[in-house]
Design goal:
452 residues; alpha/beta; 19 strands; 28% helix; disordered C terminus
Length: 452
């Protein structure tokens, strides 16, 4: 594929981030002149669209408000908003009567699948990208099925990589919570009536609650380094760290000040739990203390020294960090709710990416560069004609929204705008106006709760 056959964008991965980009491209192509249309192909290793299916726990709600969907903050009149989905499903009135900003995770997954099914996009499911390299004025994308795609730009939406402790060996009895439901369905028959969950965040607490409810004769041990679960800070002012405008401010801030602010606001997203869930777990634990029949145990200020599998279970050695005493729990499974890290770029992009242990330098429009030349810098991944855009893994440069759904609509519009401008065409994307249109109407602040 050369010359006029060269694509404008190849999206690596088709999760919510690149789905939002596909929607922005469709809406642009529908309204622009034929010669200004954007040609894109998306490559997704899964056989069908799916968004964390292993954590679609019954009753679990979203941690972001529904207007932070695939399109609303970029284009409130889009056909792909959550409201449009509700109308299409015949539940708009029912949802409004529900009086919540936070749909269940199962419903939001259905919304994402609905959007993925109807968007006008060329998605190659069941295919993985094995390498990306630059050849002349193009980026060459090699797929595992032998196909080769030529493009001017790549949008990397490869998602996150599960974080696993060094002492852990993943198996049928020791697994990350990302695969929770699937692993539990395949779990060998429980014989010990005991589960252990490592982690102090929302996912850990949800897994603890699920195991306690669905295995009524088993003990559940929640193991975490904190003294107790900490509530998420979902207050309006703290949540401005997730506003689209915050990306502008954080990106231009000095690196040390940006790091200071991100550290101060970690309680909006990391190792924190919804207060309602904390209170529910506490009520459950307290009721068991009253009855004398204990099944829920909070192993606070504790770590795991080792996990050794046996013929019919897994032995988990838990150490109390305060007194140093260790004891061993013989469990049916150990769930690692230990978070995620950005997927490494070097195996995919080769010399187009910095070393994985080097800081990522990313321009305001999400282009990966190899040196600190500023927003106009040109590095290994960006020679002025081609570019690699990062759909995630930019927290250190763009803020906490990097790995969350909260900013995918705005970010997709900004990436598409950059592609069009760098191609030499004009671009006017539908988006929320950040300036006041009348003297008596202030600019919108997007102060919508991020944590739930």
């Amino acid at each position: 594929m050369t010359g006029d056959d060269t694509l404008d964008v190849v999206g690596i991965g088709f999760g919510p981030a690149n789905l939002a980009l596909a929607i922005a491209i469709e809406e642009h192509n529908r309204s622009c002149a034929p010669g200004e249309q954007v040609r894109a192909v998306f490559v997704e290793r899964q056989d069908a669209f799916g968004w964390h299916p292993g954590m679609l726990l019954e009753g679990a709600t979203m941690q972001i408000a529904f207007p932070k969907d695939l399109a609303t903050f970029r284009n409130p009149s889009s056909e792909y908003t959550f409201f449009q989905y509700l109308f299409a499903r015949g539940r708009l009135v029912d949802f409004v009567n529900h009086q919540t900003f936070f749909p269940t995770r199962l419903e939001f997954h259905d919304y994402l699948s609905w959007a993925a099914d109807r968007v006008d996009a060329d998605v190659r499911y069941g295919t993985s990208v094995t390498a990306v390299r630059r050849v002349g004025d193009e980026l060459v994308v090699q797929c595992d099925d032998g196909r080769v795609l030529h493009t001017r730009n790549v949008a990397v939406g490869a998602g996150l990589q599960q974080r696993v402790p060094e002492w852990a060996t993943l198996s049928a009895r020791c697994f990350h919570n990302h695969d929770f439901l699937g692993r539990m369905a395949e779990l060998p028959r429980p014989t010990h009536g005991r589960f252990a969950v490592l982690g102090a965040g929302q996912s850990a607490a949800e897994v603890v609650q699920y195991l306690h409810a669905h295995h009524p004769h088993a003990e559940v041990h929640s193991i975490f380094a904190r003294y107790g679960y900490s509530p998420a800070d979902d207050s309006p002012y703290a949540n401005r760290i997730f506003d689209p405008e915050a990306v502008d401010e954080l990106h231009r801030a000095p690196a040390d000040e940006r790091a200071r602010l991100l550290a101060l606001h970690r309680s909006t997203n990391y190792s924190v739990v919804d207060l309602e869930l904390i209170e529910e777990l506490y009520r459950t634990e307290y009721a068991e203390r009253v009855s004398g029949h204990r099944r829920l145990f909070m192993r606070r200020a504790s770590t795991i020294d080792a996990a050794v599998e046996t013929a019919d279970g897994i032995e988990v050695t838990v150490r109390d960090s305060i007194d140093g005493i260790a004891d061993t729990l013989v469990c049916d499974a150990l769930v690692l709710a230990t978070g995620f890290r950005p997927s490494p770029l070097r195996p995919l992009l080769g010399d187009l990416a910095p070393d994985d242990d080097a800081p990522r330098v990313v321009t305001r429009d999400y282009r990966l560069v190899a040196d600190e030349d500023g927003d106009d810098g040109v590095g290994a991944a960006d020679d002025g004609r081609t570019a690699v855009y990062l759909q995630g893994g930019t927290e250190s440069t763009h803020g906490i929204t990097s790995s969350l759904l909260s900013n995918v609509a705005v970010r997709s519009g900004e990436i598409l705008h950059s592609v069009l401008v760098r191609r030499g065409g004009s671009a006017t994307l539908a988006r929320v106006d950040r300036t006041a249109d009348r003297r008596d109407r202030p600019a919108p602040t997007f102060a919508v709760s991020e944590a739930r």
